[in-house]
Amino acid sequence: MSKRLFVGNLEYSATNEELEELFSNEGSVASAKIIRTLDGKSKGFGFVEMETEDDAIKAMEKLDKSNFKDRVIQVNEAKPQVNRSSNEHRGRRNFNKESGGDLNSKLRRLRKRY
Fold it and tell me: In the 3-class helix/strand/coil scheme, how is the chain assigned residue by residue?
């Protein structure tokens, strides 16, 4: 069964092929992908899927805190993606009657406090 790994602190110039080559030294790689923005710039992290759990454990032990392209990378087991509402994802609060009033009443209470 394959195992997905999170790889963080990647150099922005790193490619999918370089990432796959790095992990292939530790076992069979099913896929390697660096996450990019819509305009194609690297976000500095990616995911590697190893063919077996043993290969994944071996890769985590060997490559976590190792040097790759002059950066110390972080390798962990990938966690499942959590679905978030658009307000939670952007760090905004929904000010409505259910949450205690509108934005103006919240601001008035804050002004009174200070």
Answer: CCEEEEEECCCCCCCHHHHHHHHHCCCCEEEEEEEECCCCCEEEEEEEEECCHHHHHHHHHHHCCCEECCEECEEEECCCCCCCCHHHHCCCCCCCHHHCCCHHHHHHHHHHHC
Please tell me the distance from the alpha carbon of residue 17 to that of residue 10, in angstroms, as a whole number.
13
Is the Cβ–Cβ distance between 27 and 2 less than 8 Å? no
Domain ranges of the chain: 3-77
pLDDT in tens, 38-65: 999 999 999 999 999 999 999 999 999 9
In whole angstroms, what is the distance from residue 67 CA to residue 65 CA?
A: 7
Instruction: Measure the CA–CA gap between 62 and 76, rounded to whole angstroms.
Output: 11
Q: Which two tokens stand for residue 36?
A: 């990019």
pTM of the predicted model, to two decimals? 0.71
113 band by pLDDT with thresholds 50, 70 and 90: low
CATH number belonging to domain 3-77 = 3.30.70.330
